[in-house]
């Protein structure tokens, strides 16, 4: 059967999404050609404001890469506009003189920004805010000019204004109405929003009607019917959009405000469909993503001759968005009128406002400001027309009382998780199970959930956790280092390297940290990364260390400390035991305990005694407190054990002496067993060595802690030297590529054992370099206990307390 | 030591440069156990040395900006108001501090 020729006019979000649905329904039915006016593949227009705000690059917002078109055998013509359709001959023409026949045609030309027909609107420096080109113009203008005027106080205008503020411009927002975003917000929410944005630096000219744009060549001034003129170097018109239907109308297709379609997205012309912002369905033209995607699904079913059911029946409008960092949600009817009653909560301190509009015991609309966590619930109640007469107000407006973890578990399978793309809980759960998905990114790629605005990422994460249980590693999902920054761990490390950053304050300053001095999550991470990148020069910052690593002892619940001296390979002797016993007596140590790592823990030592305990012990620190190499646990081995085939104690001590004091992203525990009976539990260690006849097997990525994981075989080697070299290369690779506080078990699952083998074992050059860098790191380590004992200031700063007596004379 | 009245005591603690930057110091004044902090901007803050959650010694916590993070369970506490930051709750007592001629004083 020959394929039908399908042409899509418009390479935007609605049209391309519809193609994806078509490919899902019938991958081989069509030979597809796409024409797009812009010179880009399909990108996420909703994210343009993030590009403007500097959070994202244009590459990041591409939804379908050129490879995607290629992979699906779609011919894409960018920068080419379709200029006419002959519906009887079933052909189209383009502005580049192309003529092409179709069997089916989809018009998805979206909309154009509405430019006010003001005198001077054609001057240089007057733009819209609609596509990548507008963004680029705004960025370029901000480099040369200072003052911007945004006309329009709706969502688009406010996003543009926020972006321009970020670009360093002064911004006036002109709005013709009394209130901002009047189509989404009621008066109260709108007033709160305005106050918030004013704090951020926006200046509002409310109730202003623009009269003209003045300037010779480039814009200089904006004048109003009612108010003083203002200076302007750049004018952004964001007063609205209008469906782009001119070409369709000229071609004789029925249009009104948009191109008129039925419930199956069919236009008045045979085999011509339309979808997206240019479509008018039951007298509604939609400008939001969710309805457009629903339309795309209906269209795909019909065009593929699948059972399209009732088709598309319209959408209840809801918006959940972040305006300049403020969460806002609105849905349905939110304006008061005599037929409705409302539940309202307003908290001026927390800047939260919630209003639920009820008619005949059913929720018909809502506005949430500042906290939108209940939005999904509310939207479901609106869509399902839930009877709320039995519910107390508190239940309707569930406040977050910490039970959020169970919310996804309680949801029914039909509930929507991703409003933009209409993906239900059931869709996601079955995708996770059937396609063995383990990350939010995979769920996004497979189901489209969280692909558009991204606000449901958290819920998708919860669903993964709920579905997979402990198999789900949420650590991999937390993208940024902490809430002080949007950068990931990898980005921070790469910035440190490329920009040559050498101090925590410098990192936070240069990389635009939101909290000037960071927090307890990012500071230790940055401190670690700096030490890892600059092993010879970086001076460790004790104030960026968690208490245990600053004090080189483990804090206990009562503020006392525990001290664990080094005991290489778990081997001790009478002299050391006597010293420990003497120290225990002298300082009245409340508890002596053997640790899991084959050492002795002295618990309950008073802070001021800690340095003296170290001095009397005269043994190296066991690093039992650190994100560092801890111990090497060993079994008895060949000297005494009747099964032992190898000298496990000897090798264990050699490993521990070689790698002691080494800082790592998280703790590293090791073990050496002399035979496969594995008495040193090598198979649940970060690095575990097991002796077999004539060889050592090296296992990696084991964990005996909170998430039990068996180690995997990395390789088998024949000499002690090779064991040390392999561990050096492996641990150095972990040190350089793991995220701070990521155990080797999680890291290995993330990067994959085969990948690690390729670098650490097979790439000889990489291996040699890793070992060299490891040796540099090891050469620069100092024994911390000795260092503090012999440094008066350090000892004083860290361990001395002050008691002052005051008399009540 | 300065003259003290019964109602408000103005207690001299130590020279400013005796306090390490961004590392807390535990000070015991009669029955008061106080965590004293010299922030990066050289101002000095003092709070009761007890996290409201599980009595963790705040003097051992990490200091960032005007906040200290409790060393036991990472509660974030505002050193100006004593308020535990969301999502946790609680409040620690704060003490007024002054630096006069490079000497630190606490008002009890």
From TrEMBL, chain A:
Domain of life: Bacteria
Binding of [4Fe-4S] cluster, residues: 635, 641, 675, 679
Pathway: Nitrogen metabolism; nitrate reduction (assimilation)
Nitrite/sulphite reductase 4Fe-4S domain mapped to chain residues: 626-764
CC cofactor: siroheme; FAD; [2Fe-2S] cluster; [4Fe-4S] cluster
CDD domains reported in the protein's UniProt record: NirB_Fer2_BFD-like_1, NirB_Fer2_BFD-like_2
Gene3D superfamilies: 3.30.390.30, 3.90.480.20, BFD-like [2Fe-2S]-binding domain, FAD/NAD(P)-binding domain, Sulfite Reductase Hemoprotein, domain 1
Binding-site list for siroheme: 679
A Pfam family it matches: NIR_SIR
Domain NADH-rubredoxin oxidoreductase C-terminal: 318-385
Keyword Heme applies: yes
Coiled coil: none
Gene Ontology molecular function terms on file: 2 iron, 2 sulfur cluster binding; 4 iron, 4 sulfur cluster binding; flavin adenine dinucleotide binding; heme binding; metal ion binding; NADP binding; nitrite reductase activity
GO terms for biological process, alphabetical: nitrate assimilation
Domain Nitrite/Sulfite reductase ferredoxin-like: 556-618
Cofactor detail note: Binds 1 siroheme per subunit.
Stored PANTHER family: NITRITE REDUCTASE (NADH) LARGE SUBUNIT
NCBIfam families: nitri_red_nirB
Family of the protein in this entry: Belongs to the nitrite and sulfite reductase 4Fe-4S domain family.
Name recorded for this polypeptide: Nitrite reductase (NADH) large subunit
Species of origin: Salipaludibacillus aurantiacus
Organism placement in taxonomy: Bacteria, Bacillati, Bacillota, Bacilli, Bacillales
Automatic annotation (TrEMBL), chain B:
A UniProt-annotated Pfam family: Rieske_2
Organism: Salipaludibacillus aurantiacus
A GO molecular-function annotation: oxidoreductase activity, acting on paired donors, with incorporation or reduction of molecular oxygen
The protein's name: Nitrite reductase (NADH) small subunit
Keyword match Oxidoreductase: yes
Any one of the GO BP annotations: nitrate assimilation
Record-linked Gene3D superfamilies: Rieske [2Fe-2S] iron-sulphur domain
Membrane-spanning residues: none
Domain Rieske positions: 11-106
Coiled coil: none
Keyword annotations: 2Fe-2S, Iron, Iron-sulfur, Metal-binding, Nitrate assimilation, Oxidoreductase
InterPro entries: Rieske-like_NirD, Rieske_2Fe-2S, Rieske_2Fe-2S_sf
